[in-house]
Give the backbone structure.
Amino acid sequence: MKAMMRKMAAGLFCIGWIASGGVTVGTVTASGPVKISGSEIPATAVSSFPLSVGDQLSTMDGQAVARVGDKAILRLEPRSTLRLEESGNDMIIRLLSGTLHYQVAYDANVRVYALDQPAKYPLVGTVKVDRRRRKAPIVWLAAGGAVAAVATTALVRRSVNCPPDSADNNCGQ
């Protein structure tokens, strides 16, 4: 019964997507259920499922492979999220969390970002956004065996009640 309800929900999502006039920019295939713009799609329905600009694709326990036309192949690891955006003539693939492996055609107008950081290697590589270990996300950019880490930091204002030589960073909070 639960599986039937999931299939019906996926069908209704497809009908709603078609009715909205979304322009397909790619497709996704997954080994497990995924979420597309907040709607859970069961693995049985994720065989060349259409993607359009503005879609947010999230994997759960399985991987997903997305194709953006014939210009890019994206492999999204489990528990990862990306968003498809458009900027002028460019398609923006923005990794919001997790790990993304990508391969982009040389003549493609496709740009890969990890949060707001452009991928160091535009054609082939891996980007990773790790939000679990620190308050500020760490963005990993890798390709060809080289790895670079970019850490974003937040400035914290100390309370006026803290003595200047206090080692307690949470003083007064």
In short: Confidence is low (pLDDT under 50) at residues 4-21, 148-159. The radius of gyration is 20 Å. The helical segments are 2-19. Residues 91 and 162 are 48 Å apart (CA to CA).
